[in-house]
């Protein structure tokens, strides 16, 4: 029997290539973090700051945060018990270490889940990705804080943090 | 007779709600105070004045909401806040629970205490007039 090695190999290469491309497109590379879809979570977590994607922190972090709303980075952000529980459920169910969220894996590299980190901006991957941003740009009047993702990432609300969509300051 | 009472009650309730949620809320604040009413001028003073009891970063309502009640404000994290004046943001103050939630949070931040029903009524009266 004569096996057509060449066409088979070519076909295989094409298949692998499209799988890789499609997977990247689906996840938006490693720079897509699905935005909050729940209206209550969006309202309660998105009034003062961007409703940060739940996949940016592990479940342990969200649990700790929702238990300490009375001192939320210096502010009292406490809510009634029902709303707090509902939000905690959503955040932990969609956390970075929840199943099927591989694109958040890199963000958790070097992070001890038991340490329940509270600041996304202190995760090793975040720090590495932003190492070239100069000090003056953080202090810019339209930026002012590292929590202000949309100041530079124009599509952050939609979950995209690619380098192409960055607004540079002057 | 029972029916008549029910109908009267229903009519009373429906006129109360047709006045709008903002008016209902003002009526509730009024019921909680023994004063002669609310004043937009006092509300304006409350909105613009500096307080020492709250957080140093936010001495006044205007610290985040901006000096112009018809303009957008900005949270300390940089997120835009819709204008506080009803004329610019007509959807504002129509959900009583939301109004109470933000009075509680913001008064604690700025004044270092909760606001009184009188203060809330004055402030709301000012914003409705703007």
Using brief descriptors, characterize the structure shown:
heterodimer; A: 170 residues; mainly alpha; 6 helices; 37% helix; globular; B: 130 residues; Cytochrome Bc1 Complex, Chain D, domain 2; two-stranded antiparallel ribbon; 2 strands
Q: What is the helix/strand order of chain A?
A: HHHHHH
Biggest protein-protein interface? A-B, 16 and 8 residues
Radius of gyration of chain B: 17 Å
Radius of gyration from the alpha-carbon trace of chain A, in angstroms: 20 Å
Considering DSSP H and I runs of 4 or more, what fraction of the residues of chain B is helical?
40-55%
Order of helices and strands of chain B: HHHHEEHH
Q: Count of helical segments of chain B?
A: 6
List the helices and strands and how they pair.
The complex is a heterodimer of chains A (170) and B (130).
Chain A: H1 5-27, H2 39-45, H3 59-67, H4 81-93, H5 124-129, H6 135-139
Helix pairs in contact in A: 3-4
Chain B: H1 2-18, H2 21-32, H3 40-48, H4 62-65, E1 73-74, E2 80-81, H5 96-110, H6 117-129
Antiparallel strand pairs in B: 1-2
């Amino acid at each position: 029997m004569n096996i057509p090695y060449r066409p088979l190999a070519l076909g295989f290469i094409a298949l692998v290539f499209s799988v890789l491309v499609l997977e990247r497109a689906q996840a938006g590379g490693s720079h897509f973090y699905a935005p909050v879809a729940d209206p209550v979570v969006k309202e309660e977590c998105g009034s003062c700051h961007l409703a940060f994607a739940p996949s940016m922190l592990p479940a342990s972090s969200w649990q700790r945060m929702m238990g300490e709303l009375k001192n939320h980075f210096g502010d009292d952000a406490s809510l009634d018990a029902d709303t707090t529980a509902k939000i905690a459920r959503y955040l932990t169910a969609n956390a970075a270490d929840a199943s099927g969220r591989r694109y958040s894996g890199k963000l958790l590299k070097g992070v001890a889940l038991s340490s329940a980190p509270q600041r996304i901006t202190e995760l090793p991957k975040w720090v590495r990705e932003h190492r070239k941003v100069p000090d003056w740009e953080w202090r810019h009047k339209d930026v002012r804080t590292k929590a202000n993702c949309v100041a530079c990432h124009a599509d952050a609300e939609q979950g995209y943090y690619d380098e192409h969509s960055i607004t540079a300051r002057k | 007779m029972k029916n008549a009472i029910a109908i009267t009650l229903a009519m009373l309730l429906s006129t109360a709600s047709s006045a709008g949620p903002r008016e209902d809320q003002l009526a509730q604040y009024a019921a909680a105070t023994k004063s002669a009413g609310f004043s937009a001028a006092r509300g304006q003073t409350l909105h613009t004045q500096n307080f020492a009891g709250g957080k140093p970063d936010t001495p006044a309502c205007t610290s985040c909401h901006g000096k112009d009640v018809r303009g957008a404000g900005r949270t300390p994290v940089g997120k835009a806040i819709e204008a506080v004046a009803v004329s610019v943001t007509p959807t504002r103050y129509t959900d009583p629970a939301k109004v109470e939630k933000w009075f509680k949070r913001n008064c604690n931040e700025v004044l270092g205490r909760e606001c009184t029903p009188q203060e809330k009524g004055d402030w709301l009266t000012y914003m409705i007039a703007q």
